[in-house]
């Protein structure tokens, strides 16, 4: 019998964070029909910012991958809130958009955003496979290294 999302999280030793409140004039997610759009999530863990800096300068690819994974955990926390606490309602991870705070000559954006992409497949299995964009940015909110947004299909 296939494992539930919660069973996979427990098996991986992953505890989802509390869904963060928005930091400005926006909502953390919007449910429209059977789609959930989750606003960009940054590298906040237990209320503290992590992974501050730029890829290609003060942050290496492995740290960037970990930063994107943390963004992915925050995405799933928002998704869980959007689903009324029931992640079994998720039918598909449709798309992720990853933004990497980096130097002008940095070109490993996909390797960084894989941190969030790999997490989606670990947690959701085949329905975690998604379309994606991974782009560089000259700066990101609060100086974080990575921000990831998501689009999900739910029941």
From TrEMBL:
Annotated Endoribonuclease L-PSP/chorismate mutase-like domain residues: 6-144
UniProt cross-references to InterPro entries, sorted A to Z: Endoribo_LPSP/chorism_mut-like, RutC-like_sf
Domain of life: Bacteria
Pfam families in UniProt: YjgF_endoribonc
Full protein name: Enamine deaminase RidA (YjgF/YER057c/UK114 family)
């Amino acid at each position: 019998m296939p494992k539930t999302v919660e069973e996979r999280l427990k098996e991986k030793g992953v505890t989802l964070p509390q869904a963060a409140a928005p930091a400005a004039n926006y909502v953390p997610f919007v449910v429209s029909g059977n789609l959930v759009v989750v606003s960009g999530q940054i590298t906040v863990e237990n209320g503290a910012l992590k992974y501050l800096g730029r890829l290609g300068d003060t942050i290496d690819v492995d740290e960037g991958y970990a930063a994107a994974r943390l963004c992915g955990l925050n995405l799933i926390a928002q998704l869980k809130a959007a689903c009324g606490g029931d992640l079994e309602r998720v039918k598909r991870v449709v798309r992720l958009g990853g933004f990497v705070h980096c130097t002008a000559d940095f070109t490993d954006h996909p390797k960084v955003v894989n941190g969030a992409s790999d997490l989606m497949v670990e947690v959701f299995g085949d329905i975690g496979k998604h379309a994606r964009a991974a782009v560089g940015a000259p700066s990101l909110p609060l100086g974080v290294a990575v921000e990831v947004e998501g689009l999900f299909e739910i029941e």
